[in-house]
Design a protein that fits this description.
This protein is α/β, with parallel strands linked by helices. It contains eleven helices and ten strands. The strands form two sheets. Strands 1-10-9-8-7-4-3-2 form an eight-stranded parallel β-sheet. A two-stranded antiparallel sheet has the order 5-6. It starts with 6 loop residues before the first strand and ends in a 12-residue tail after the last helix.
């Protein structure tokens, strides 16, 4: 597949039954709903997919199911982050063998104290690059690993497969701007993250795409479409419509927001997560739906 690294590439939530087992049919409906919302690509097994709550065999099953079910309708990014370089490489090869288009990874880390150095990070990305799939570097606070701009540029210049950058650290716009200025053409796909809570500033800085949750893809996509067509007033107006919902998702709900919306819209049957994740407080959930309803997003009516 020829891939254009622009647009909106949501993270697919992982569907569970109420007992915590995987809902594989629900997972297919999640993917179909994201595509119907206008997703330009889909990311699986990411943090907002609850990757840390999944067993290794479940990751393999979900990777296979998702790639086969999407079957080329949009590009698929498979998240492969792991502290061990060997395992990250094996995950990348598995994704490639199944037909995935891109892999995404954070730098090597495990908890608060095991963090890869700049050299170790470079070496891990170089090893994964040898698999031959484009890599999206995920610069997220969760890892606790500093990824300075010169290191990112060095990886882009020297590792052919390092092409995409999801920047979701504090003051992401500043980092995106510096990354693009220093890296030039080797920074092929600078992306925004964090549920698009800083999207306008990130677009101003040069972001070409956004990796949001799967909650209101159809409502956020016009922001990017207008912006990249030069319609800045329309982009600002489109963002103003969704800003309160995005803020509530980012600051109050996390990944459970998308699942709550999908239950409301009949996409999936359960918004369950796995222990020790607590369900949304009823008042927080009610406010979320109240913020979404005036937007009339596809997610609230897709399965009805």
């Amino acid at each position: 597949m020829s891939v254009s690294y622009t647009g909106i590439w949501p993270v697919a939530p992982t569907a569970f039954h109420e007992d915590g087992s995987l809902d594989l049919e629900g997972m297919k409906r999640v993917l179909d709903c994201l595509i119907d919302q206008g997703a330009d690509g889909i990311c699986i097994l990411a943090n907002f997919s609850e990757q840390f709550l999944l067993a290794d065999d479940e990751r393999a099953l979900l990777t296979s199911l998702c790639v086969e079910h999407i079957v080329g309708r949009v590009p698929v990014i498979v998240t492969i982050s792991h502290y061990a370089t060997r395992i990250a490489v094996e995950r990348a090869q598995f994704a490639k063998d199944l037909g995935a288009d891109i892999v995404m990874m954070m730098p090597p880390y495990h908890g608060a104290l095991l963090k890869g150095s700049a050299q170790q990070t470079y070496e891990q990305f170089r090893a994964v690059g040898e698999v031959g799939l484009p890599i999206m570097v995920q610069d997220a606070p969760l890892s606790g690993v500093d990824l300075p701009v010169p290191l990112l540029v060095k990886m882009a210049q020297e590792i052919d497969m390092v092409k995409l950058f999801k920047i979701e650290c504090p003051r992401a716009a500043n980092k995106l701007r510096d990354l693009i200025a220093m890296g030039g053409d080797v920074i092929e796909a600078p992306f925004d993250g964090e549920e698009a809570i800083t999207l306008l500033a990130d677009l101003d800085a040069g972001a070409r795409g956004s990796m949001t949750s799967g909650m209101i893809v159809d409502q956020i996509k016009p922001v990017l479409t207008h912006y990249h067509a030069g319609r800045l007033d329309e982009a600002t107006e489109a963002y103003s419509r969704v800003a309160m919902a995005i803020n509530h998702e980012n600051r109050q709900c996390g990944w459970l927001s998308c699942k709550a919306a999908m239950v409301e819209g009949g996409v999936i049957q359960s918004e369950a997560s796995r222990h020790p994740i607590e369900p949304l407080h009823p008042a927080i959930r009610a406010r979320l739906i109240a913020l979404l309803e005036p937007l009339d997003p596809l997610v609230l009516k897709w399965g009805k």
